[in-house]
Design a protein that fits this description.
single chain, mainly alpha, Arc Repressor Mutant, subunit A, 2 domains, 8 helices, 0% strand
Length: 162
């Protein structure tokens, strides 16, 4: 554990406030909305305009870890590699840690993968009936037979052995 600094002066000068608390349970920085309009010393106004335009076209980042996971899972399905290990790697956690995090959200890897694939299948069908090989690619299955079995399982969940 790191000790407290002998002097707060560097923090006070850098952050421009005397409100610096150590030993809090989480590390946070809070900014007032009006602080965002302040000029930064040495800032490049041309770069600011470029970055502001770029930020305006970006989608907002996921608000929670679970939303981030769902986004990464969707990308993995789109790339045809929706394995637990691949998604965990993208989230920079071990496969076991990913499973624990999902359990904290009362779900499992398999349930999330199936749910994401079902959602994609519904979207694909809205655009007209896709070919089975095209649907298999969109859902991240190895081939049309795997996709066909999944569609049967989803339409008749009582016969699902799980």
């Amino acid at each position: 554990m790191l000790g407290l600094p002998s002097s707060y002066e560097a923090f006070i000068r850098t952050l421009g406030t005397r409100r610096v608390d150590f030993g809090a349970p989480i590390t946070t920085l809070a900014f007032r909305a009006r602080d965002l309009d302040l000029a930064m010393p040495g800032a490049d106004p041309d770069l600011f305009r470029i970055l502001r335009r770029y930020a305006a076209i970006l989608s907002p980042p996921p608000a929670t870890w679970y939303e981030h996971f769902q986004h990464v899972l969707g990308e993995a399905i789109g790339h045809g590699s929706p394995s637990l290990e691949a998604v965990a790697g993208r989230l920079t956690v071990s496969a076991r840690t990913l499973q624990r995090r999902l359990a904290e959200h009362s779900t499992t890897w398999r349930a999330e993968l199936q749910s994401a694939r079902q959602h994609r299948a519904r979207l694909a069908r809205q655009d007209g009936p896709p070919t089975m090989s095209g649907l298999a690619r969109q859902l991240g299955y190895a081939g049309p037979r795997s996709a066909r079995r999944a569609l049967r399982r989803w339409s008749n969940p009582i016969s699902d052995p799980d």
